[in-house]
Design brief:
- This protein is an alpha+beta fold.
- Helix content is about 15%, strand content about 35%.
- The strands form two sheets. It has a six-stranded antiparallel β-barrel with strand order 1-2-5-4-3-6.
- A hairpin with a 2-residue loop joins strand 7 and strand 8.
Length: about 220
């Protein structure tokens, strides 16, 4: 579990490709102060496991499903990546619940500067928009952010100068792809509501054929 508060930017030192997966070595400093084998580290929002480490770098294995679902296959040696250690039980919770499991890859279609903020419009799969709402939480390349506005197949975020300077978003331009993780609470609520409405939830759930407006109002759905 992560918070989406980036601790530092690392650099891709080495990428070793096998037939189906990658071994990636990443240079870092801060997050290596207490690293252990098997630790979870968020790399551009992807929860990866430390398989080996030195005083200045760590290695992770990237499986085929992760490559397919994220923008990792577009990284090169020298690319910057956002890094965050798993949330400590006694730490501050400054972002929101981030699982490190990417929902989809989005594409930046516009970046513009307004006053002291940079606005990004990101295009994504239309089916993802049901989890993305104005003023709601979203994770972009591992960064906990707030949604500004949504449209049919895209949404916008506003970035302050500090976030731009301390994360890879400062390097992102129109046409670049980013990892997107929607708010997990929204996904759980959607699944629970779907099960309740379809009658596939807990014992005693009503089927869709017996649903009425009164029933929906009584149970807080309307």
């Amino acid at each position: 579990m992560f918070t989406g508060i980036i601790e530092e930017m690392g650099k891709i030192k080495e990428i070793r490709k096998t037939a189906k997966d990658y071994e990636v070595v990443i240079t870092a400093h801060k997050i290596l102060t207490d690293v252990q084998l098997g630790d979870s580290i968020s790399v551009n929002g992807i929860c990866l496991t430390v398989t080996s480490f030195t005083a200045t770098s760590f290695q992770v294995d990237v499986m085929p499903e992760t490559i397919k679902a994220s923008n990792l296959d577009r990284l090169q040696v020298g690319s910057s990546v956002n890094l965050e250690r798993a949330m400590a039980a006694n730490g501050r919770f400054g972002g929101h619940f981030v699982s490190g499991h990417i929902d989809t890859v989005g594409e930046i279609v516009e970046r513009k500067h307004v006053s002291n903020a940079s606005y990004f419009w990101i295009k994504t799969k239309p089916e993802m928009l049901k989890y993305i709402v104005s003023k709601g939480s979203i994770t972009i390349d591992g960064i906990s952010l707030t949604v500004v506005e949504t449209k049919d197949d895209m949404f916008s975020i506003s970035i302050i100068p500090h976030t731009l300077s301390e994360t890879v978003l400062g390097e992102r331009q129109a046409g670049d792809q980013v990892n997107v993780e929607c708010d997990m609470l929204a996904k759980y609520m959607d699944r629970l509501l779907e099960a309740r409405l379809s009658g596939t939830g807990t014992k005693g759930s009503q089927s869709t054929s017996s649903l009425t407006m009164e029933h929906l109002m009584e149970n807080g759905f309307v």
